[in-house]
Amino acid sequence: MTDTSPRLDLPLIQPSQAQKHVTHNEAVLALDTVVQLSIAGFDLAAPPADPLPGATYALGAAPSAEWAGQGGRLATWGPNGWRFIAPADGWIGWDTEGAQLRVRKNGVWEVLAMGDAGNGGTGGGAGGGGAGGALDLQNVPGLGIGTAWDATNRLAVHGTNALLTSDGGFDIAVNKAAAGDDASLTFKTAYAPRALMGLLGRDDFGIKVADDSGTYRESLRIDRASGAARFPSGARVSQVLHIPGKWQCAANGQWAGLSDNSGHGAETYNQNYGPKTGEPTSRFVDLGPFVRRGSRIVALRGVMRANQPDLSAFDVRVYHQTGANGDFWGNDYARTEILSRDGVPIPGTAMYVVDLAIGYDVPKDGLLIMALRPSTPIASTRFIYSSLAFYCLTAPD
Protein backbone atom coordinates (compact mmCIF):
# COMPACT_ATOMS: atom_id res chain seq x y z
CA MET A 1 0.00 0.00 0.00
CA THR A 2 1.34 3.45 -0.95
CA ASP A 3 1.77 6.26 1.56
CA THR A 4 -0.05 8.96 -0.45
CA SER A 5 -3.01 9.34 -2.79
CA PRO A 6 -2.22 9.33 -6.56
CA ARG A 7 -3.72 12.70 -7.50
CA LEU A 8 -3.47 15.14 -4.60
CA ASP A 9 -0.61 13.39 -2.82
CA LEU A 10 -2.65 13.23 0.42
CA PRO A 11 -1.20 11.10 3.25
CA LEU A 12 -2.93 7.74 3.70
CA ILE A 13 -3.52 5.99 7.02
CA GLN A 14 -1.53 2.76 7.01
CA PRO A 15 -2.65 -0.56 8.55
CA SER A 16 -1.83 -0.85 12.25
CA GLN A 17 -0.58 2.77 12.18
CA ALA A 18 -0.26 4.52 15.52
CA GLN A 19 -1.54 8.09 15.93
CA LYS A 20 -3.84 7.80 12.94
CA HIS A 21 -5.32 11.18 13.77
CA VAL A 22 -2.06 12.88 12.77
CA THR A 23 -2.18 11.48 9.25
CA HIS A 24 -5.88 12.23 9.02
CA ASN A 25 -5.37 15.85 10.06
CA GLU A 26 -2.54 16.28 7.56
CA ALA A 27 -4.85 15.17 4.78
CA VAL A 28 -7.65 17.46 5.97
CA LEU A 29 -5.30 20.47 6.06
CA ALA A 30 -4.13 19.69 2.54
CA LEU A 31 -7.73 19.48 1.36
CA ASP A 32 -8.44 22.78 3.09
CA THR A 33 -5.87 24.34 0.77
CA VAL A 34 -6.65 22.73 -2.58
CA VAL A 35 -10.47 22.49 -2.43
CA GLN A 36 -11.93 25.80 -3.68
CA LEU A 37 -8.33 26.92 -4.17
CA SER A 38 -7.79 30.63 -3.57
CA ILE A 39 -4.34 32.16 -4.16
CA ALA A 40 -3.33 35.52 -2.69
CA GLY A 41 -0.24 36.09 -4.85
CA PHE A 42 1.79 34.57 -7.66
CA ASP A 43 5.50 34.13 -8.37
CA LEU A 44 6.43 35.40 -4.93
CA ALA A 45 10.06 35.27 -3.84
CA ALA A 46 9.71 35.74 -0.06
CA PRO A 47 7.02 35.22 2.58
CA PRO A 48 4.79 38.17 3.49
CA ALA A 49 5.47 39.83 6.84
CA ASP A 50 2.06 39.15 8.36
CA PRO A 51 0.12 36.43 6.49
CA LEU A 52 -3.47 35.64 7.41
CA PRO A 53 -4.38 32.12 8.58
CA GLY A 54 -5.17 29.95 5.59
CA ALA A 55 -3.63 32.39 3.08
CA THR A 56 -2.09 30.54 0.13
CA TYR A 57 0.64 31.82 -2.21
CA ALA A 58 2.08 30.49 -5.46
CA LEU A 59 5.86 30.58 -5.10
CA GLY A 60 8.35 31.68 -7.71
CA ALA A 61 11.18 29.53 -9.03
CA ALA A 62 13.72 30.37 -6.32
CA PRO A 63 12.06 31.70 -3.16
CA SER A 64 14.04 32.61 -0.07
CA ALA A 65 13.79 32.61 3.74
CA GLU A 66 11.22 30.11 5.04
CA TRP A 67 10.26 29.28 1.47
CA ALA A 68 13.77 28.32 0.36
CA GLY A 69 13.87 25.12 -1.68
CA GLN A 70 10.10 25.16 -2.30
CA GLY A 71 10.12 26.77 -5.74
CA GLY A 72 6.92 26.37 -7.76
CA ARG A 73 4.89 25.04 -4.83
CA LEU A 74 1.86 26.41 -3.02
CA ALA A 75 2.55 27.73 0.48
CA THR A 76 -0.28 27.97 3.04
CA TRP A 77 0.08 29.69 6.41
CA GLY A 78 -1.41 27.82 9.37
CA PRO A 79 -1.11 27.37 13.16
CA ASN A 80 2.06 25.31 12.75
CA GLY A 81 3.70 27.60 10.17
CA TRP A 82 4.00 27.10 6.43
CA ARG A 83 2.69 24.03 4.66
CA PHE A 84 3.79 23.30 1.06
CA ILE A 85 1.91 21.48 -1.70
CA ALA A 86 3.17 20.80 -5.22
CA PRO A 87 0.42 21.80 -7.72
CA ALA A 88 -0.14 19.81 -10.90
CA ASP A 89 -1.04 20.97 -14.40
CA GLY A 90 -4.79 21.40 -14.72
CA TRP A 91 -5.36 22.82 -11.23
CA ILE A 92 -7.58 25.91 -11.22
CA GLY A 93 -7.37 28.62 -8.58
CA TRP A 94 -8.94 31.98 -7.89
CA ASP A 95 -6.55 34.94 -8.12
CA THR A 96 -7.80 37.11 -5.27
CA GLU A 97 -5.65 40.09 -6.27
CA GLY A 98 -6.51 40.09 -9.98
CA ALA A 99 -10.10 38.88 -9.46
CA GLN A 100 -9.74 36.20 -12.13
CA LEU A 101 -9.39 32.47 -12.55
CA ARG A 102 -6.00 30.93 -13.30
CA VAL A 103 -5.08 27.49 -14.54
CA ARG A 104 -1.80 25.64 -14.09
CA LYS A 105 -0.29 24.94 -17.54
CA ASN A 106 3.20 23.62 -18.12
CA GLY A 107 4.22 24.67 -14.65
CA VAL A 108 2.88 28.23 -15.00
CA TRP A 109 -0.26 29.81 -13.55
CA GLU A 110 -2.00 31.33 -16.60
CA VAL A 111 -5.15 33.43 -16.70
CA LEU A 112 -8.02 31.10 -17.57
CA ALA A 113 -9.24 31.99 -21.06
CA MET A 114 -12.87 31.63 -22.10
CA GLY A 115 -11.92 28.86 -24.50
CA ASP A 116 -10.42 26.87 -21.62
CA ALA A 117 -13.55 27.33 -19.53
CA GLY A 118 -15.90 26.26 -22.29
CA ASN A 119 -13.95 23.17 -23.39
CA GLY A 120 -14.96 19.92 -21.79
CA GLY A 121 -16.72 21.59 -18.87
CA THR A 122 -13.48 22.42 -17.05
CA GLY A 123 -14.46 26.02 -16.51
CA GLY A 124 -18.05 25.18 -15.69
CA GLY A 125 -17.33 23.98 -12.20
CA ALA A 126 -14.69 26.58 -11.45
CA GLY A 127 -16.09 29.67 -13.12
CA GLY A 128 -19.41 29.73 -11.37
CA GLY A 129 -21.91 32.55 -11.43
CA GLY A 130 -23.51 31.72 -14.77
CA ALA A 131 -26.09 29.41 -16.25
CA GLY A 132 -24.59 26.08 -17.22
CA GLY A 133 -21.31 26.94 -15.49
CA ALA A 134 -20.44 29.89 -17.78
CA LEU A 135 -17.77 32.31 -16.66
CA ASP A 136 -18.87 35.46 -14.90
CA LEU A 137 -17.68 38.26 -17.20
CA GLN A 138 -18.82 41.16 -15.06
CA ASN A 139 -16.03 43.62 -14.17
CA VAL A 140 -13.28 41.44 -15.62
CA PRO A 141 -9.96 43.31 -15.77
CA GLY A 142 -9.38 42.47 -19.44
CA LEU A 143 -10.34 40.28 -22.37
CA GLY A 144 -8.19 38.79 -25.12
CA ILE A 145 -9.72 37.15 -28.19
CA GLY A 146 -7.13 35.24 -30.17
CA THR A 147 -4.38 37.15 -28.36
CA ALA A 148 -3.47 38.38 -24.87
CA TRP A 149 -4.71 41.59 -23.30
CA ASP A 150 -2.40 43.81 -21.28
CA ALA A 151 -2.58 46.82 -18.97
CA THR A 152 -2.71 49.21 -21.96
CA ASN A 153 -5.03 47.20 -24.20
CA ARG A 154 -7.72 45.87 -21.87
CA LEU A 155 -9.61 44.50 -24.87
CA ALA A 156 -7.41 42.80 -27.47
CA VAL A 157 -8.69 41.01 -30.57
CA HIS A 158 -6.62 39.15 -33.17
CA GLY A 159 -8.49 38.27 -36.35
CA THR A 160 -9.57 39.51 -39.76
CA ASN A 161 -13.18 40.58 -39.22
CA ALA A 162 -15.55 41.65 -36.46
CA LEU A 163 -19.34 41.91 -36.60
CA LEU A 164 -21.66 44.00 -34.47
CA THR A 165 -25.29 43.63 -35.48
CA SER A 166 -28.76 44.48 -34.25
CA ASP A 167 -32.40 44.07 -35.18
CA GLY A 168 -32.70 47.86 -35.02
CA GLY A 169 -30.22 50.69 -34.69
CA PHE A 170 -26.73 50.32 -33.28
CA ASP A 171 -24.42 52.83 -31.63
CA ILE A 172 -20.78 52.60 -30.58
CA ALA A 173 -19.80 55.22 -28.02
CA VAL A 174 -16.24 56.41 -27.34
CA ASN A 175 -16.41 58.60 -24.25
CA LYS A 176 -13.73 60.82 -22.73
CA ALA A 177 -13.66 62.39 -19.29
CA ALA A 178 -12.84 66.00 -20.25
CA ALA A 179 -12.66 68.23 -23.33
CA GLY A 180 -8.85 68.21 -23.28
CA ASP A 181 -8.71 64.41 -23.49
CA ASP A 182 -8.86 62.31 -26.65
CA ALA A 183 -11.74 60.14 -27.83
CA SER A 184 -10.30 58.71 -31.00
CA LEU A 185 -9.65 55.87 -33.41
CA THR A 186 -6.03 55.23 -34.38
CA PHE A 187 -5.06 53.55 -37.65
CA LYS A 188 -1.62 51.91 -37.73
CA THR A 189 0.73 50.05 -40.04
CA ALA A 190 2.98 47.52 -38.30
CA TYR A 191 1.89 49.21 -35.05
CA ALA A 192 3.18 52.62 -36.23
CA PRO A 193 0.42 55.30 -36.11
CA ARG A 194 -0.62 56.63 -39.49
CA ALA A 195 -3.94 58.42 -38.86
CA LEU A 196 -6.21 59.56 -36.02
CA MET A 197 -9.84 60.57 -36.10
CA GLY A 198 -12.18 61.68 -33.35
CA LEU A 199 -12.27 64.33 -30.63
CA LEU A 200 -8.55 65.06 -30.46
CA GLY A 201 -7.79 67.27 -27.48
CA ARG A 202 -10.94 69.31 -28.05
CA ASP A 203 -14.66 68.77 -28.64
CA ASP A 204 -14.45 69.53 -32.37
CA PHE A 205 -14.17 66.52 -34.66
CA GLY A 206 -10.80 66.18 -36.35
CA ILE A 207 -8.51 64.02 -38.44
CA LYS A 208 -4.73 63.92 -38.14
CA VAL A 209 -2.11 61.99 -40.11
CA ALA A 210 1.40 61.00 -39.10
CA ASP A 211 4.54 60.71 -41.21
CA ASP A 212 7.29 58.11 -40.75
CA SER A 213 8.88 60.16 -37.97
CA GLY A 214 5.64 60.13 -35.98
CA THR A 215 4.95 63.84 -36.52
CA TYR A 216 1.20 64.52 -36.64
CA ARG A 217 -0.43 67.07 -38.94
CA GLU A 218 -4.04 68.12 -38.62
CA SER A 219 -5.91 67.58 -41.87
CA LEU A 220 -9.50 68.33 -40.90
CA ARG A 221 -11.33 70.11 -38.10
CA ILE A 222 -15.13 70.45 -37.94
CA ASP A 223 -16.52 73.03 -35.53
CA ARG A 224 -19.11 71.33 -33.33
CA ALA A 225 -21.17 74.53 -32.96
CA SER A 226 -21.34 75.74 -36.56
CA GLY A 227 -20.51 72.59 -38.50
CA ALA A 228 -17.96 74.55 -40.53
CA ALA A 229 -14.99 72.55 -41.80
CA ARG A 230 -11.41 73.78 -41.75
CA PHE A 231 -8.33 72.28 -43.35
CA PRO A 232 -5.41 73.40 -41.14
CA SER A 233 -2.82 71.81 -43.45
CA GLY A 234 -4.52 73.05 -46.61
CA ALA A 235 -6.90 71.37 -49.04
CA ARG A 236 -6.50 70.21 -52.63
CA VAL A 237 -9.82 70.01 -54.46
CA SER A 238 -10.62 69.09 -58.02
CA GLN A 239 -10.73 71.95 -60.52
CA VAL A 240 -11.61 71.94 -64.20
CA LEU A 241 -10.15 74.62 -66.49
CA HIS A 242 -12.23 74.69 -69.68
CA ILE A 243 -10.70 75.70 -73.03
CA PRO A 244 -13.39 75.19 -75.68
CA GLY A 245 -12.75 76.44 -79.20
CA LYS A 246 -11.56 75.75 -82.72
CA TRP A 247 -8.13 74.94 -84.13
CA GLN A 248 -7.16 76.01 -87.67
CA CYS A 249 -4.73 73.51 -89.15
CA ALA A 250 -2.75 74.72 -92.15
CA ALA A 251 -1.89 72.47 -95.06
CA ASN A 252 1.82 73.01 -94.41
CA GLY A 253 1.45 71.29 -91.02
CA GLN A 254 2.67 74.18 -88.85
CA TRP A 255 1.86 74.42 -85.15
CA ALA A 256 -1.27 76.37 -84.25
CA GLY A 257 -2.77 77.85 -81.14
CA LEU A 258 -6.40 77.96 -80.07
CA SER A 259 -8.59 80.39 -81.99
CA ASP A 260 -9.17 83.77 -80.36
CA ASN A 261 -12.37 84.15 -78.32
CA SER A 262 -12.60 80.34 -78.07
CA GLY A 263 -15.23 80.29 -80.78
CA HIS A 264 -17.28 83.20 -79.42
CA GLY A 265 -17.70 86.33 -81.53
CA ALA A 266 -15.36 87.28 -84.36
CA GLU A 267 -12.65 84.66 -84.71
CA THR A 268 -9.04 84.97 -85.67
CA TYR A 269 -6.64 82.08 -85.76
CA ASN A 270 -3.15 81.84 -84.38
CA GLN A 271 -0.94 79.73 -86.62
CA ASN A 272 2.43 81.21 -85.73
CA TYR A 273 3.52 78.61 -83.16
CA GLY A 274 6.20 77.15 -85.36
CA PRO A 275 6.98 75.33 -88.60
CA LYS A 276 5.75 71.95 -89.70
CA THR A 277 8.98 70.34 -88.53
CA GLY A 278 10.46 70.55 -85.05
CA GLU A 279 8.78 71.88 -81.94
CA PRO A 280 6.64 74.98 -81.38
CA THR A 281 8.47 78.29 -81.21
CA SER A 282 9.37 79.67 -77.82
CA ARG A 283 7.47 82.94 -78.22
CA PHE A 284 3.80 82.59 -77.37
CA VAL A 285 1.48 85.53 -77.89
CA ASP A 286 -1.72 83.92 -76.54
CA LEU A 287 -2.78 83.59 -72.95
CA GLY A 288 -3.94 80.30 -71.47
CA PRO A 289 -5.60 79.25 -68.21
CA PHE A 290 -3.91 80.62 -65.08
CA VAL A 291 -2.62 78.05 -62.57
CA ARG A 292 -1.32 78.71 -59.05
CA ARG A 293 1.91 77.50 -57.55
CA GLY A 294 1.29 74.21 -55.75
CA SER A 295 -1.46 73.07 -58.11
CA ARG A 296 -1.20 69.71 -59.82
CA ILE A 297 -2.17 69.34 -63.47
CA VAL A 298 -3.64 65.85 -63.72
CA ALA A 299 -4.78 65.48 -67.32
CA LEU A 300 -6.10 67.07 -70.50
CA ARG A 301 -9.54 65.68 -71.32
CA GLY A 302 -12.45 66.45 -73.60
CA VAL A 303 -13.95 65.78 -77.02
CA MET A 304 -12.61 66.71 -80.46
CA ARG A 305 -13.58 66.23 -84.11
CA ALA A 306 -12.13 67.19 -87.47
CA ASN A 307 -14.18 68.83 -90.17
CA GLN A 308 -12.66 66.63 -92.91
CA PRO A 309 -11.64 62.95 -92.80
CA ASP A 310 -8.10 63.55 -94.08
CA LEU A 311 -7.28 65.14 -90.69
CA SER A 312 -7.33 61.85 -88.78
CA ALA A 313 -4.75 62.54 -86.04
CA PHE A 314 -2.91 65.41 -84.40
CA ASP A 315 0.21 66.18 -82.36
CA VAL A 316 -0.13 68.20 -79.17
CA ARG A 317 2.21 70.07 -76.83
CA VAL A 318 1.30 71.72 -73.52
CA TYR A 319 3.62 74.12 -71.71
CA HIS A 320 3.68 75.80 -68.33
CA GLN A 321 4.71 79.38 -69.05
CA THR A 322 5.79 81.78 -66.32
CA GLY A 323 7.99 84.75 -65.64
CA ALA A 324 8.77 87.53 -63.21
CA ASN A 325 5.91 89.69 -62.00
CA GLY A 326 5.81 92.84 -64.13
CA ASP A 327 7.63 91.34 -67.14
CA PHE A 328 6.25 90.58 -70.58
CA TRP A 329 6.10 86.79 -70.50
CA GLY A 330 5.88 86.47 -74.26
CA ASN A 331 9.58 87.31 -74.55
CA ASP A 332 11.12 87.21 -71.06
CA TYR A 333 9.81 84.04 -69.51
CA ALA A 334 10.49 80.44 -68.56
CA ARG A 335 8.53 77.55 -69.99
CA THR A 336 8.32 73.84 -69.20
CA GLU A 337 6.89 71.22 -71.52
CA ILE A 338 4.38 69.19 -69.51
CA LEU A 339 2.70 67.19 -72.29
CA SER A 340 4.06 65.88 -75.59
CA ARG A 341 1.97 63.45 -77.59
CA ASP A 342 2.07 62.63 -81.29
CA GLY A 343 -0.52 60.91 -83.42
CA VAL A 344 -3.59 61.33 -81.18
CA PRO A 345 -6.35 59.73 -83.31
CA ILE A 346 -9.58 61.51 -84.32
CA PRO A 347 -10.57 59.49 -87.45
CA GLY A 348 -13.48 60.50 -89.62
CA THR A 349 -15.51 63.53 -88.64
CA ALA A 350 -17.20 62.19 -85.50
CA MET A 351 -16.59 63.27 -81.91
CA TYR A 352 -13.77 61.45 -80.12
CA VAL A 353 -12.97 61.47 -76.43
CA VAL A 354 -9.43 62.59 -75.64
CA ASP A 355 -7.84 61.68 -72.30
CA LEU A 356 -4.15 62.57 -72.00
CA ALA A 357 -2.42 62.13 -68.64
CA ILE A 358 -0.08 64.92 -67.49
CA GLY A 359 0.81 64.71 -63.77
CA TYR A 360 2.67 68.02 -63.35
CA ASP A 361 3.16 69.89 -60.06
CA VAL A 362 3.16 73.64 -60.72
CA PRO A 363 6.26 75.25 -59.15
CA LYS A 364 5.27 78.87 -59.84
CA ASP A 365 2.22 80.91 -60.81
CA GLY A 366 1.82 80.81 -64.56
CA LEU A 367 -0.19 79.92 -67.65
CA LEU A 368 -0.97 76.75 -69.57
CA ILE A 369 -0.22 77.14 -73.28
CA MET A 370 -1.31 74.54 -75.81
CA ALA A 371 -0.12 74.03 -79.39
CA LEU A 372 -1.49 71.59 -81.97
CA ARG A 373 -0.70 70.47 -85.52
CA PRO A 374 -2.02 67.77 -87.90
CA SER A 375 -0.18 64.45 -87.79
CA THR A 376 -1.38 63.45 -91.25
CA PRO A 377 -1.07 65.27 -94.59
CA ILE A 378 -4.12 67.43 -95.34
CA ALA A 379 -5.20 68.80 -98.71
CA SER A 380 -5.95 72.29 -97.46
CA THR A 381 -6.86 74.20 -94.32
CA ARG A 382 -8.80 72.04 -91.90
CA PHE A 383 -10.45 72.70 -88.55
CA ILE A 384 -10.62 70.75 -85.31
CA TYR A 385 -13.58 71.56 -83.10
CA SER A 386 -12.96 70.88 -79.43
CA SER A 387 -14.29 71.17 -75.94
CA LEU A 388 -11.25 70.50 -73.77
CA ALA A 389 -10.39 71.02 -70.13
CA PHE A 390 -7.38 70.72 -67.89
CA TYR A 391 -8.22 68.63 -64.83
CA CYS A 392 -6.33 69.92 -61.80
CA LEU A 393 -5.95 69.69 -58.06
CA THR A 394 -5.86 73.15 -56.54
CA ALA A 395 -2.96 74.37 -54.44
CA PRO A 396 -3.38 73.87 -50.67
CA ASP A 397 -4.81 76.94 -48.95
From TrEMBL:
Listed name of the protein: Ribonuclease III
One Pfam entry name: DUF2793
Organism, scientific name: Oceaniovalibus guishaninsula JLT2003
InterPro entries: DUF2793
